[in-house]
Amino acid sequence: MELWIATSNEGKLREIRSLLMEKNIQVHAQGELSYFSPPPETGTSFEANARLKAKALKAVKPDCWVLGEDSGLEVEGLSKMPGIHSARYAGPKASAAENNAKLLKMLDLRSFNQRAAKFICVMVVYDPAGKEHVFSGTLPGEIAKKAQGTTGFGYDPIFIPEGETKTLAELGAALKNKISHRSQALRQLLSVL
Ligand code: IMP
Questions:
Q1: Does the CB atom of residue 74 touch ligand 1 within 6 A?
Q2: pTM of the predicted model, to two decimals?
Q3: What's the structural domain count of the chain?
């Protein structure tokens, strides 16, 4: 079967591909469609944004399975920011390193040190008949004192999963794929495919 993914984030795509690889699913991404332009992320929740992405791609791939994904990091001591603004926390074109630096700085500015955080992932999937399925995953942990490690993407260098002492970017792809918010949601999807 073919599954179209509504993302241009290479880090997410890499993880989704590697988790679906053995399942004989042909994974395609919106980047293969030169005429497709993704919608603005105007939703006020992960689910709303995942739905916007999935709906836009479903409109041009009506007969296929289509997956929209929205994810981000909620930090307790920052009133759950950056949340749905995770990709653009330090500005509209911010790099992951800039986002990480801003988040560490914001936590340093706090008088109390509340570094508990969680990654959240919501997937909205449309099947070929147009039925909507919603899946989600959460990975609890805390924000490290400084960025460490080189694997993964986004906030991985500053996120220490619960029960670990190293960041996701130090722990590597195999461990991340076992426990991540994204892999939890994908396993739910696999159970209905
Ligand atoms: P969006 O879902 O495309 O709006 O962007 C999600 C943003 O959240 C990414 O650009 C990352 O900054 C962050 N994010 C989501 N999932 C992960 C993850 O697994 N590791 C690190 N950062 C993530």
A1: no
A2: 0.97
A3: 1
